[in-house]
């Protein structure tokens, strides 16, 4: 009798461990975070607290090992702005994803050059460099100190606008 109760007890423990260890569907949220959130579903307060303690330790270790990196929305937006114009994958919403896509940037010209074919190469105060992709001519080409706006067009195109002039098609090159 004693042996059969022990077997039932071990089976119960293994089911509980299996339930806790079952895979969590991939939602883009790291598994360590998902497991921490899953602790909320435990009804017994002592077990729930133990789960939270265990999972926060796991999360803390993952952060220390740089397996999980946490950034706030302000830093994510700054990163998106610095990458504006580059063709990069979404990386599963690495910088927050969602509807807060940057559609344009406003900056100041710090340098203007021409390539061997006469196309403009414009460097902005934020460090980005844009090369002209069309043969449009501006009435007044940009000069150092001019305010410009680079905006996203259709089909992945970008346009640089100086003042109220029509924009020229550009590509980010640096």
UniProtKB/TrEMBL annotation:
Residues 1-19 form the signal peptide. It comes from the Bacteria. Keywords: Signal. The keyword Signal applies. This is Uncharacterized protein. The lineage of its organism: Bacteria, Pseudomonadati, Pseudomonadota, Alphaproteobacteria, Sphingomonadales.
